[in-house]
Amino acid sequence: MQTPADPQDRHEYPSHWEADVVLRDGGTARVRPITVDDADRLVSFYEQVSDESKYYRFFAPYPRLSAKDVHRFTHHDFVDRVGLAATIGGEFIATVRYDRIGTDGMPASAPADEAEVAFLVQDAHQGRGVASALLEHIAAVARERGIRRFAAEVLPANSKMIKVFTDAGYTQQRSFEDGVVRLEFDLEPTDRSVAVQRAREQRAEARSVRRLLAPGSVAVIGVGRAPGGVGRSVLGNLRDAGFTGRLHAVNQAFPDDLKEVDGVSAHRSVRDIEGPVDLAVVAVPAEHVPGVVTDCGEHGVQGLVVLASGYAESGQDGRARQRELVRHARTYGMRIIGPNAFGIINTADDVRLNASLAPEMPRPGRIGLFAQSGAIGIALLSRLHRRGGGVTGTTGVSTFVSSGNRADVSGNDVIQYWYDDPDTDVVLMYLESIGNPRKFTRLARRTAAAKPLVVVQGAGSAPQGHAVRATRLPHATVSALLRQAGVIRVDTITELVDAGLLLARQPLPAGPRVAIVGNSESLGLLTYDRCLAEGLRPARPLDLTTGATAADFHRALAGALADDSCDAVVVTAIPTIGEGTVGDAELAEALRSAAEGVPGKPVLVVHVELGGLAEALSAAGRTAPQAPQASQASQASAPPERGDLQRPAERPPTAEAAADRTPAPPTPHPCSRLIPAYPAAERAVRALAEAVKYAQWRREAAEPGKVPEYEDIDEKGTAELIGALLERGEGLTLGVEETCALLGGYGIDVHRALPAPTPEAAAGAARDLGYPVALKATAPHLRHRADLGGVRLDLADEEQLRRAYTELTELFGPPEELRPVVQRMAPRGVDTVVRAVIDPAAGAVLSFGLAGAASQLLGDMAHRLVPVTDRDATSLVRSIRTAPLLFGWRGSTPVDTPALEELLLRVSRLVDDHPEVVAVTLEPVVVARHGLSVLGATVRLAPPPARDDLGPRTLPAY
To answer: pLDDT-based confidence at 856, cuts 50/70/90?
Structure first.
């Protein structure tokens, strides 16, 4: 049923309102504006709504829509009348609309700022969180159009819709009149509404990943008839892992009479499978993927793992193919791992999923593992699996995700899943890029408060297959911000595994005090030196001599753990030769029994060429059963079948995997603790140092600081000043007077610097300011470069001032090049620099360091995300390497760091309250014994970057 479009109803289509959202059950839907072309869809949608739902919407029996109704509900001006629809497969599953009204309740236009809102959700999709998602989006649209308040009338019996409004977290009023509940609520986000939105986001995204990692049925599409090829290998990996659900092999080239492949039911198409399919592993070439996606979508498949390459990593055509893949899959509400993915693994006993190219199931354990790169994923799985020749005493994996190009499911989604996953204690991530740094740091902070999150972040440019927001922040700054969020940031995958093994099976240390015991004095001293280098506080090593027995180790370790001045113990062990020497198993049991006596302190072992000890420690402490071994039949080579994807370069190192196989050890006593063993002291100590810093962060995060209020801050007046200044145009660097006025609104006083184009002007400025004064050249090549001689200080009178003026002009050129200024002298102190910048990807960042070579040459700057709390400001001042200069280093006078911290808090408040302030630099800030002086300042204004973290929930756009 199509109705003709009225020309006056045709307005520019707001494409930026289109969005994909994750629903409560983990499925996805598309939200978009309703247009005149949607008449047939609207009628079809309405016909599938129950009479009861229609009654709740219209307060009366309303079996069908009239032509007038259809016209009204599809013709919008996208300003005063807006309708949005949630769609799956191109068909409506829910609608929402608002109509702007005046104070009399009648239709109105701006400046009226209230609107009536109403929903209708198809019965089959009620309970999926569709209405809550639509409310977020229609509220964002309304705010954009100047509407500040919604009103809704609901029948008392419509409890579900009342709950949608009341649970949203907005400030609301509720009344009852004429048998109708009237709800009115402000659309300005509140702390509660943001918290509600983020809690819903976490639950929805976690469930969407859970549907991928714990499917009830899996179809592998692209399975060849002969052994070999990616599809056949993945099918074998799934079967050999003991997948507990239903398994299907699919290839359109299968003969009609083929019923099974390797004991798995065979089908020519997903559509031919009886019953639901939760997950499809797509192992066909890229050109065949669109047809597969359509088949999967029509059959109701919930998610895809796309192994095929030839997408964004291959260039511009591939990027277009990848965008279309995501759009196509989301049309059906499906989520995607990949493309160009290595696969996913879940070792849970009730799942046992190995939908990956790894020929062997990892040992079950408590580590969640994420890698964007398939090659790195292979290396990480191999290292965690290996029993000797490296990090030993390994634990196992709970779940593993290798996302490839991460066109859809990303590290953020998987963090949402691991946050409350009871089977995961530690999260290890290898990230080649961070697509949404602002969201990642938010999720990382929340997750790190519950369980360790260890990250290796690539320092180079993002791979071609990754859609990444541009950031202007240096890699070191991003790393510092990750650490602020509680992320354990390491540099290599070796360090990633080292830290993960310690955190997975040992308690967090209560402090940096370390005891060292062992049978080698030299190895103990080496460990002692590494502890000092990592900022730990080691006690002198206790040397047990090479003749130490297992009982000696037990006694020494038990004594160290019982010492209240010890927070962690490192045991060093070297092999001994001779009659009566300690055996590996005996020593391992001695260490374990001693450690169990004081379970609250971590124990690490440094061993030198003692593979037997490492094996014994692992065997005696592992509680998880051995995984079944992969069938080698699937490794045989054979010509590829039609549709079977070939990618031999991505095959795991099967020879190494075969060498790693060991018999399953006996299950130990439930109280046993696995003690990680390391082949080098520096690796053990580095892992321990990271655990110490993380434990300190956890303690501090448990008592977060506060953003203080200052009575002298004029937020309203500053906003008005910024608005007036921005009327001049975008991208405005303020002049001196404007900078001083704007900063003054936040209690930041900048010392006046008066221009001195002539000696007479300099003398006049000095008389106005009062002697002593400073004469400075502000030309770009001389600014903040006292080392070049462009600054003259402590000029006590006019004679000295004129002499200095002459010297500067003779040395550097005429005044019009020098741009000299005169400034009143400030008390002597330490020169520092304070900066704030709004990065489009990471958000607002506050930075601090000492002015001059320390920050410019050595990069000694510390960084915090805005808003900064009082605790953040305190730690920021102390985080730089040159911080001792502020606290009386070598007998110097300590400076007023509380005043410095207050300045940092005021700058943070300024950029947080006014995102139009996109850059602030205060340099130099001279911090004296009492107080400080801001001698130079620059401020840049611009329209603020979009804050998608405050808007409605959406998936990344493609």
So the answer is: confident
Measuring CA to CA, how many Å separate 386 from each of 369, 522, 630, 744? 16, 28, 15, 62
Average pLDDT over residues 372-386: 84
Burial of 616 (0-12, 13-18, 19+ CB in 10 A): buried
Interatomic CA distance for residues 473 and 913, integer angstroms: 21
- Which tokens sit at 784? 């903040």
Beta strands in 205-278 (DSSP E): 217-221, 246-250, 260-261, 264-267
Q: Please report the beta strands in 393-434, taking only residues with DSSP state E, as ranges in sequence order.
A: 397-402, 426-431
Other CB atoms within a 10 A radius of the CB of residue 686 amount to: 22
Provide the 3-class DSSP secondary structure of residue 869. coil
CA angle 436, 440, 444 (to 5 degrees): 175
d(CA 934, CA 922): 7
Give Cα 730 distance to the centre of its chain: 31
Instruction: Kindly give, in sequence order, each residue whose CB lies less than 8 Å from that of residue 769, ignoring residues fewer than 6 positions away.
Output: 752, 754, 822, 823, 824
Supply the angle between the helices 681-701 and 521-533 in degrees, to the nearest 10.
40
Q: Of 114-123, 189-198, 804-813, 845-854, which has the strongest mean pLDDT?
A: 114-123
Whole-number Å distance between alpha carbons of 267 and 251: 7
Q: Residue 867, preceding bond cis, omega within 30 degrees?
A: yes
20 in Cβ contact with 409 (< 8 Å): no
Distance CA(681)–CA(511), nearest Å, equals 19
| 68 within 8 A of 42, measured Cβ to Cβ | no
Q: Which of 814, 810, 816, 805 is nearest to 776 (CA)?
A: 805
* Cα 656 off chain centre by: 33
Q: What angle do CA 460, 468, 908 make, to 5 degrees?
A: 90
CA distances from 82 to 18, 95, 130, 188, 810 (A): 13, 11, 18, 19, 69
Token readout for 63 is: 């079996």
Length of the chain: 958
- d(CA 777, CA 763) in angstroms, rounded, equals 15
Closest by Cα among 19, 64, 58 to 43: 64
Helix (H, G, I), strand (E, B) or coil at 909: helix
Distance, in Å, from the CA atom of 204 to the CA atom of 493, rounded to the nearest integer, reads 31
Cα 895 to Cα 886: distance, rounded to the nearest angstrom: 6
Rg (CA), the chain: 33
Residue with tokens 């990943």: 209
DSSP string, 126-175: TTSSHHHHHHHHHHHHHHHTT--EEEEEE-TT-HHHHHHHHTT---EEEE
> Per residue in 538-567, pLDDT tens?
999 999 998 899 999 999 999 999 999 999
Q: What is the 3-state secondary structure (H, E, C) of 58-74?
A: HCCCCCCCCHHHHHHHH
Which residues touch 628 (CB under 8 Å, ≥6 apart)?
Answer: 240, 241, 242, 361
CB 826 within 8 Å of CB 753: no
Calpha distance 843→912 (Å, rounded):
10
The closest of 483, 406, 419, 430 to 201, measured between CA atoms, is 419
Return the amino acid letter for 620: A
Which residues make Cβ contacts (< 8 Å) with residue 633, sequence separation at least 6? 227, 236
Structure tokens at 201: 């986001």
Q: Which tokens hold the place of 28?
A: 């996805």
Alpha carbon distance 36, 38 (integer Å): 5
Neighbour tally for 16: CB within 10 Å: 10
Distance CA 925, CA 928 (A): 9
Percent of the chain with pLDDT over 90: 62
- Asked if residues 224 and 251 have their Cβ atoms less than 8 Å apart, the reply is yes
Nearest to 343 by CA among 633, 630, 650, 634: 650
